[in-house]
Amino acid sequence: xxxxxxxxxxxxxxxxxxxxxxxxxxxxxxxxxxxxxxxxxxxxxxxxxxxxxxxxxxxxxxxxxxxxxxxxxxxxxxxxxxxxxxxxxxxxxxxxxxxxxxxxxxxxxxxxxxxxxxxxxxxxxxxxxxxxxxxxxxxxxxxxxxxxxxxxxxxxxxxxxxxxxxxxxxxxxxxxxxxxxxxxxxxxxxxxxxxxxxxxxxxxxxxxxxxxxxxxxxx
Length: 219
What we know:
The chain has helices at 47-55, 76-82, 98-108, 115-121, 137-149, 167-182, 214-217; strands at residues 8-18, 21-32, 36-40, 62-67, 70-71, 83-86, 155-159, 186-190, 201-204. The protein is of the alpha/beta class. The longest helix has 16 residues, at 167-182.
């Protein structure tokens, strides 16, 4: 997770268009080592779309997303290797156990593959041998989040990560984020709830919103 001194992950004058709708415009962000940014705003303000822009899954209609001053579009593979994205869906394969699911994703993401320790981070060790098809929504989310602990990614992009989590699991997530930041990691989180993250900055997308984002506005 070593970063060059002063490395910043930034967005400059970003414009996002989804389904011919101007979702937001004129948006800037900057995330440095150890930083956490909370993306807040009403449904449809573009929180999920901004995370996808940050991940390189979408291209901005205007502006640029840069790592260390260089556009992430120049070397998308390098950018993909430095980030871990957790979206709304939990990609847990029904036929594989929780441990097998985690081992697969850890290998795919060049992670450490320390499955047992990763599951302990999210208090999910007891689920290790349970097939994915038997998991509740909350258990699937914990299994998916355990991928963070097995990842070597510097940048965590988390879209509503506390969905379906109880208070104990949310506390595990907050501790994992704190450890990641303490090691120089970067975190951007979309959220509708208050999260206990020391020193986190808030980026209110309502400030930049133009028309509702169809991804977030859909019931």
